[in-house]
Design a protein that fits this description.
Layout: E1 20-24, E2 37-42, E3 46-53, E4 56-61, H1 72-81, E5 86-96, E6 99-100, H2 102-110, H3 114-122, E7 125-135, E8 138-139, H4 145-156, E9 163-165, H5 172-181, E10 189-194, E11 204-210, E12 212-223, E13 231-238, E14 241-247, H6 253-260, E15 275-277, H7 278-281, E16 290-292, E17 294-306, E18 319-323
Parallel strand pairs: 1-11, 7-9
Antiparallel strand pairs: 2-10, 3-4, 3-5, 5-6, 5-7, 7-8, 10-11, 12-13, 12-17, 13-14, 15-16, 17-18
Helix pairs in contact: 2-3
């Protein structure tokens, strides 16, 4: 591939909207998308667009934020791996002890100066490319995905770590093996794409299937009144104490009613305070405003959770399934599938 390249046209100047994915249950059927279905692993990282123009390299988030300063390692590598006039779409990830470490990415966004350089040196970022928007100064978004993939694969012949090409397959059996076998490495699931679709930014034309597991948690507080809770606050034993590890999505009326039947006023000392920071319920919520909790006598609740576990909490909302009054909260342990990280306790 010619590395001389051309300047990016005005249509490919950042920020740009990225193609989005719609959540589905399980591996989608072949008829769910037009054309041939292409499967890729869903990496647990930051979605980034990398732009290589004559004036340098820049990295942008799906929300249109310039992330270049937070990923100096990837920006430097992109200057070597991408010819001028190219734009690629993919995921910035950090590997730690054989697993994807999303929290290491989060720490970069709150670090600066020496702390950022230290984080980049200790846990370098990697880029996994899965699409291409600009080729030698030409806008490639109107091409079907199958053609864009050919161009991306040609470009990737120039790549070396920390850049890599996302695996892709048309084989449903191999996709199933990825879906079932890669969860232990922190992969979130699968993304399914149509071979004939163009790159339509801002539209949910891809499909994503995430790993979902049933597990028991301890509900020791709710948001809203005990008689009609709006959210359930979940806890699990970590380091010998019941820690807040997440909250449910907004409870449906029937689920709120089912949960309220088993909620009681605490009978003794409670492990949680009545007011917590927003980041305690959601470590990745930038809003640290105080949130009031309705403390309750602990009760076991069965929930559905995806693979996005940070080492201290769930990054995504839990889905309420049912109350398990026959189980004793003291018997609930940390599932073997969840590994406790060495991150700071949320305040």
């Amino acid at each position: 591939m010619d590395r001389s390249g051309e300047a990016l046209p005005s249509t490919l100047r950042p920020p740009l909207e990225v193609v989005l994915a719609k959540a589905v249950k399980g591996i989608p059927a072949p008829a769910a998308l037009p054309g041939q279905m292409l499967f890729e692993p869903k990496f647990d990282g930051y979605r980034v667009l990398i732009f290589r123009d004559r004036d340098g390299v820049s990295l942008w988030s799906r929300q249109g934020k310039n992330l270049t300063r937070y990923f100096p390692d990837l920006a430097e590598a992109a200057g070597l791996m991408l010819p001028t006039g190219f734009v690629v779409d993919g995921e910035a990830v950090v590997w730690s002890e054989g697993r994807l470490n999303f929290e290491a990415l989060q720490r970069r966004l709150s670090a600066g100066g020496p702390a950022l350089r230290s984080a980049a040196a200790e846990l370098p970022a990697n880029f996994v490319g899965f699409d291409i928007l600009g080729v030698a100064g030409q806008d490639a978004r109107a091409l079907p995905l199958a053609d864009r993939r050919v161009l991306l694969e040609e470009l990737a012949t120039l790549w070396a770590p920390p850049f890599s090409l996302s695996p892709q397959t048309t084989d449903r059996e191999l996709a199933r093996q990825w879906f079932e076998g890669l969860a232990g490495a922190g992969m979130e699931g699968l993304v399914a794409k149509s071979s004939i679709q163009t790159y339509t930014g801002g539209k949910r034309i891809w499909l994503k299937a995430k790993h979902v597991s049933e597990l028991d948690v301890v509900c020791a507080a709710v948001v809203g009144p005990m008689e009609r809770p709006t959210e359930m606050v979940a806890g699990l034993p970590i380091d010998g104490e019941l820690r807040i590890v997440g909250r449910s999505s907004t409870l449906k009326a029937a689920d709120s009613k089912a949960l309220s039947r088993w909620l009681r006023t605490p009978e003794g000392p409670h492990p949680w305070p009545p007011v917590v920071k927003g980041t305690t319920l959601d470590r990745f919520n930038r809003d640290a405003s105080p949130t009031g909790l309705t403390l309750v006598e602990p009760v076991v609740v069965e929930v559905l959770a995806d693979a996005a576990w940070s080492g201290q909490s769930f990054r995504h909302s839990l889905r309420f399934r049912r109350v398990r009054p026959e189980l004793d909260p003291i018997d609930v342990g940390l599932p073997s599938s969840l590994t406790v990280g060495d991150t700071d306790r949320p305040g």
